[in-house]
Each structure stands twice: as C-alpha cells, then as structure tokens.
UniProtKB/TrEMBL annotation:
Domain DUF1508 intervals: 13-57
Protein name: DUF1508 domain-containing protein
Source organism: Pseudarthrobacter psychrotolerans
Transmembrane segment boundaries: none
SUPFAM superfamilies linked: YegP-like
InterPro entries membership: DUF1508, YegP-like_sf
Length: 66
C-alpha cells in the first residue's frame, strides 16, 4: 500500500493535510488552509516538489545566535 494524503477538517473554516506512509505513520502535516481548493493545490505542489527536490544536509551549518 502506498502512502496517502489525508484531508482533515480542522474547523468550519479550515482544512489540514496529513501525509502518511504505507504503515500509516504521519510523515508531514500542513498548515491550515481556509479553502479546499488551496489545499488541493498544496497537494499537487507537494507531489511535484517531492519528486524533484534536492536533499540539503544542514547539520554542519554553524548555529546563529538570535
């Protein structure tokens, strides 16, 4: 079984996306979306970017003090 994109209604005005792996473990949770169409656009963007994204290892970057 493949992972899946789960759409959850957070409130009457918000939706959230949860990406799960094939074992049902949560891989990522989106911020809230006010419109279902925007959430679906987010799914498409995630699919496109995950397939072509570059892995950047930032472990050796010095910590900055704020």
């Amino acid at each position: 079984m493949a992972g899946r994109f789960e759409i959850h209604r957070v409130s009457d005005e918000c939706y959230r996306l949860r990406l799960t792996d094939s074992n049902g473990n949560t891989v990522a949770v989106s911020p809230d979306f006010k419109h279902l169409g925007a959430l679906k656009d987010g799914i498409n963007a995630l699919r496109e970017n995950a397939a072509t994204g570059v892995v950047v290892d930032l472990r050796q970057q010095p910590l900055t003090s704020g």
